[in-house]
Specification:
With 552 residues, the chain is α+β, with helices and mostly antiparallel strands. The chain has a domain at 500-551. It has helices at 6-21, 24-33, 58-74, 89-92, 95-114, 117-131, 177-184, 191-198, 272-298, 345-361, 364-371, 381-387, 389-420, 443-467, 479-490, 500-538, 541-551, and strands at residues 82-85, 135-141, 145-151, 156-160, 166-176, 205-214, 230-236, 246-250, 302-304, 334-336, 373-374, 377-378, 437-440. It has a five-stranded antiparallel sheet. Helix 9 runs antiparallel to helix 10 (345-361) and helix 14 packs antiparallel against helix 15 (479-490). Helices cover 50% and strands 13% of the residues.
Length: 552
């Protein structure tokens, strides 16, 4: 196991800090001009931040629409956005397996609604759009099963492994003396903190460090929490030498660190704000100049005769200023310096173009459609796919990264805590030791699927048209498979699709019914034939033969 000395921890902190330092100037600009309420590395106190740099809030509003759109489109609490399924379709189609998966899914939705997940996600989406990176830590909760602690950009550092997935997180945050003792215990804090606590300096702030990283020197022969795949250690700034507030470990990397997009070799991601930042800055300058131009129009600089110096002059509306008579033929009293109005139409047009570019960078029209009502009610996945197919294709890699780095880990961590809290129904025997996968059925996930669903519709339509001339062509299509695939793409509830057993029983019953109906329709003819046979047997066939022979 790695020896977690103060020297080693300080070294790791400085290494991670050096890597992040290249991103900080960009983040500071994003915070200054787009989202001043975020970021914890700039100012320790919110009151010390600059909220006056934003003259035009187009970027701020666009980032809020993006966050709201992602929340509504990916993880809306008002509608199902995921379901747990078994990757084996035949096994997943079994009635009791299906019922178990639906029950677990519904319980997990209840856990999400009870936790703070739906309060944390909008903030994470917004930081993803502005800074390209977000982070939070799932924490076990005895009452709520799980809760999530979000971190703002600037209060954490990250590092990635060989596969470029985040496997290291360092946090630097503050706690009061009272909070520190409550969280870690009186005996675990430093001597300095104990002295402040004894003197009742409860509100004095202490800076805390928290590092989670791979345990490269773990002892596999020992199964304690200090020899797990990842180490977790807390310590105070300026605390006792080599003394830790808490040291533990995890078998998996617990923090969630999604990135919007990623360049090769980078640990931190970048978001739409990176592309829009230049326009956002330009917009502030343009709006400033526009304001100056308008001010000069409504309150222009004036010129007056030198002889009027010291006279009382009023600029109030409807006021009258009386001037002394002048024998100077060149005297003109008071007038504006400008003989014509200042034309700002070109500036206004350019401002509108810049605003449109910012909105486009943040996918505002797409996400605004998701969050707002349409004439037919809420926007459907089909409407979104039809109107914004190009943008959905561009968002495809981003949404896939969200699934891999945020949504799937959320579900996985929650599933683990539900097991620990005995909140999972008894697992069917067929699923023992089996993998359970996640299928996303959110509005955006469905819209992504619908972009490709037209292939099924075109194929079925083509086959239907061709069948008018060659009916046997329908033998090529598997209707059951087409309906199942179409249903999955639409994200329809699994309860709407019957199991293979139910379908087989239904078709067998229908075949038997059709057979009975055919027999019922044939019954009169069969009865008539039986009567004829009976009549024939009762006829004096010998006499008839004699007559026939005699006739011959």
């Amino acid at each position: 196991m790695t020896e977690l000395t103060t020297r080693y921890l300080t070294k790791r902190k400085n290494e991670l800090k050096a890597t992040r330092s290249a991103w900080e100037p960009h983040w500071k600009d994003c915070q200054k001009f787009i989202l001043p309420i975020s970021a914890r590395f700039l100012e320790e106190k919110v009151s010390g931040r600059n909220f006056n740099a934003i003259i035009d809030n187009t970027g701020t509003v666009a980032s809020r629409v993006l966050a709201s759109g992602l929340m509504s489109g990916l993880t809306s609490p008002a509608r199902p956005w995921f379901k747990l399924v078994h990757p084996n379709s035949e096994l997943a189609a079994l009635k009791h397996i299906k019922a178990w998966s639906e029950e677990v899914t519904e319980r997990m939705r209840f856990v999400f609604r009870s936790s703070n997940l739906y309060q944390v996600l909008p903030s994470m989406y917004r930081e993803l759009g502005v800074y390209g990176t977000a982070a939070c830590l799932p924490i076990a909760d005895e009452q709520k099963v799980i809760r999530f602690r979000q971190f703002s950009v600037g209060e954490y550092y990250i590092g990635a492994g060989a596969k470029r997935t985040v496997d290291t997180l360092y946090r630097h945050y503050s706690r009061t003396v009272k909070q520190l003792v409550e969280e870690f215990g009186y005996n675990e804090v430093s001597n300095r903190t104990r002295r402040m606590y004894d003197k009742e300096n409860f509100e004095q702030t202490i800076m805390i460090n928290h590092l989670i990283e791979p345990n490269l020197g773990r002892n596999f022969a020992r199964n304690d929490n200090k020899n797990m795949a990842f180490i977790s250690v807390y310590w105070e700034d300026g605390g006792d030498q080599n003394k830790h507030l808490r040291q533990s470990g995890f078998e998996t990397f617990k923090p969630l660190v999604p990135r919007w997009d990623l360049m090769v070799g980078d640990d931190y991601g970048y978001g739409p704000a990176t592309e829009a930042l230049g326009d956002v800055k330009q917009l502030q300058h343009q709006q400033k100049f526009k304001g100056l131009a308008i001010e000069k129009k409504v309150n222009p600089p004036l010129t007056a005769d030198a002889a009027m110096r010291g006279d009382i002059i009023s600029n109030a509306p409807n006021s009258v200023t009386y001037l002394p008579a002048s024998n100077n033929p060149n005297a003109h009293g008071i007038k504006s310096q400008y003989e014509k109005n200042v034309d700002i139409s070109h500036l206004s047009l350019d401002i509108q173009e810049v605003q449109n570019r910012i909105d486009t960078a943040f996918y505002k029209d797409l996400f605004l459609m998701i969050t707002s009502d349409t004439s037919a009610g809420r926007a459907t996945a089909t409407e979104i796919a039809e109107k914004h197919q190009e943008k959905l294709l561009m968002l495809g890699p981003v949404l896939q990264r969200f699934n891999d780095e945020l949504l799937k880990p959320i579900i996985s961590r929650t599933f683990e805590e539900m097991i620990n809290n005995d909140f999972i129904p008894e697992v069917p025997e067929e699923l023992q030791g089996q993998e359970i996968t996640v299928e996303f059925i959110s509005l955006l996930a469905q819209a992504q699927e619908i972009v490709g669903i037209g292939g099924i519709e075109r194929l079925v339509g083509f086959a239907g048209n061709l069948a008018q001339f060659k009916p046997e062509v329908l033998d090529v299509l598997d209707g059951d498979a087409a309906v199942k695939e179409y249903s999955e793409m639409l994200g329809a509830p699994t309860s709407l699709i019957k199991t293979k057993e139910d379908v087989a029983a239904l078709r067998q019953g229908r075949a038997e019914q059709q057979q009975m109906q055919q027999m019922a329709e044939m019954a009169p003819a069969m009865a008539q034939g039986a009567q004829a046979a009976k009549t024939l047997t009762e006829t004096d066939t010998a006499g008839l033969v004699d007559k026939i022979n005699g006739g011959v």
